[in-house]
Amino acid sequence: MSNFTETEERQELRRQVSKLAKGYGRDWFVERARSGEKTTELWMEIAKAGYLGVNIPEEYGGGGGGIGDVAAVCEELAAQGCPLLMMVVSPAICGTVIARYGTEEQKQRWLPGICDGTATMAFAITEPDAGTNSHNITTTARRDGDEWVLKGQKIYISGVDEAENVLVVARAEDERTGKLKPCLFVVPTDSAGFEFTAIPMEIVSPEKQFQVFIDDVRLPADALVGDEDGGLVQLFAGLNPERIMAASFSTGLARHALEKASAYAKERTVFKAPIGSHQAIAHPLATAHIENELARLMTQKASALVDAGDDMAAGEAANMAKYAAAEAAVHAVDAAVQTHGGNGITQEYGMAGLLVAARAGRIAPVSREMILNFVAMHSLGLPKSY
Ligand SMILES: Cc1cc2nc3c(=O)[nH]c(=O)nc-3n(C[C@H](O)[C@H](O)[C@H](O)COP(=O)(O)OP(=O)(O)OC[C@H]3O[C@@H](n4cnc5c(N)ncnc54)[C@H](O)[C@@H]3O)c2cc1C
Q1: Does residue 2 have a pLDDT over 80?
Q2: Range name among 78-87, 130-139, 175-184 with the lowest pLDDT average
Q3: Atom 17 in ligand 1: which residue has the minimum CA distance?
Q4: Domain-located, residue 222
Q5: Domain end call among 178, 202, 229
Q6: Cα–Cα distance between 102 and 109 in angstroms, integer?
């Protein structure tokens, strides 16, 4: 039966996460970001409550739920002004890939730490020269006896300083054909030859981005996730969760901005009535709210398709959800800043600090243009443009 509302269980999960996040709040989060501190208490508290790995199978320490559940957690945290970027990466991308394609031993080794928050896993595909064109990545994996030797560079990798391991996408030479094929490796962040430096970013976030240098990092044979020939399939398994989580991050931020702006617009009076009674203020907020609700609906559809095992249909929906959510967040935050007038730019009201975070949703983890390329080609049947 088609259903356009979430289950009572999912709604209860949202309420619980929202309550927990309210105890921390936006001011706490921003203070952490500006002082260079981390949000470890919140991370560990959601882990302890079972929300961090809610999408991971129970036998590996998770909650046995779906991607829609972990997306709901991500959205509710963001809606309270405490977006945790590493949720997109650790339980959703890395957790999904390992739960689906890791060997039994790998699942037992890595998934419990992802769920209980003690072994966060970052994800590294982007490279300085390849950029969006990930077919052009040049990080290579070479066999040396029983070991793998990794060499290359990555850029904009989130949360490397908070992670125990990084799931690195490299290219290994196929022994039969000599061609390079993508392979995924779990690389401990304390490996010899693994270095990282923070990139100064304008986002107000405790989670940082890093440039990563992989200089002949030696790894045991079982650092390679799953099957050597399955790298591409494994990579694709991480894409829908990545997009759904990024969408939820954006819709949560949009909700946060709209709630603040609506409260302000009801209170602030400069002529005879509150500024929210002027349509010039009310309509942009209402428009952004509509856009955001549509994006949330598409995110829930994409999640339901992933959880039903229909990865192909989920691909289209997840891309559309991610696109729509980023647009909604940009419009919501812009309208929220405008609603606040001069206060919109102060640190006290915290609205301008959301601008870059919302804007980043149009760029990462996949850009708006690449989603439009995907939709033009796969949904509309137009010629491939790149
Ligand atoms: C906050 C943040 C966190 C990130 N975290 C991670 C992470 O944890 N792990 C990771 O691996 N990466 C991460 N990234 C990297 C992110 O995925 C890339 O920035 C993104 O994929 C774009 O790549 P690029 O920056 O190299 O841009 P480029 O590839 O240089 O593209 C520049 C512009 O050109 C456009 N463009 C390029 N090709 C085409 C085309 N064919 N048609 C139309 N337009 C095109 C792009 O859409 C973009 O607007 C993060 C980035 C940010 C900003």
Answers
A1: no
A2: 175-184
A3: 365
A4: yes
A5: 229
A6: 10
Give dist(CA 344, CA 350) in Å, integer. 7
Q: Which residues pair with 217 in a beta bridge?
A: 150
Tokens found for residue 299: 């995110």
CATH of the domain at 91: 1.10.540.10
Dump pLDDT digits (tens) for 223-237.
999 888 888 899 999
Note whether residue 384 is domain-resident: no
Q: Nearest 5°: phi and psi at 271? A: -100, -130
Q: 131 and 23 in one domain?
A: no
> How many CB atoms neighbour CB 156 within 10 A?
19
Residues 364 and 253 in one domain: yes
pLDDT digits (tens, 9 = 90+) for 235-264: 999 999 999 999 999 999 999 999 999 999
- Report yes or no on whether pTM surpasses 0.85: yes
Residue range of the domain that includes 80? 8-120
Q: Report how far apart the first and last C-alpha atoms of the chain are (Å, whole number).
A: 40
Q: Which conformational region is residue 152 in: left (phi greater than 0), alpha (psi within -120 to 50 degrees), or beta?
A: left
Number of domains in the chain: 3
What are residue 276's phi and psi, to 5 degrees? -65, -15
Atom number of ligand 1 nearest to Cα 203: 1
**pLDDT at 1 exceeding the cut of 60:** no
pLDDT of 87 reads 98
CA of 368 to the centre of ligand 1 (A): 9
How far away, in angstroms, is 184 Cα from ligand 1 center?
20
Cα(362) to centroid(ligand 1), Å: 9
Going by the DSSP 8-state scheme, the letter that residue 210 receives in this structure is E
- Among the candidates 88, 120, 152, a domain finishes at 120
Q: Does residue 248 share a domain with residue 338?
A: yes
CB atoms closer than 10 angstroms to residue 68:
24
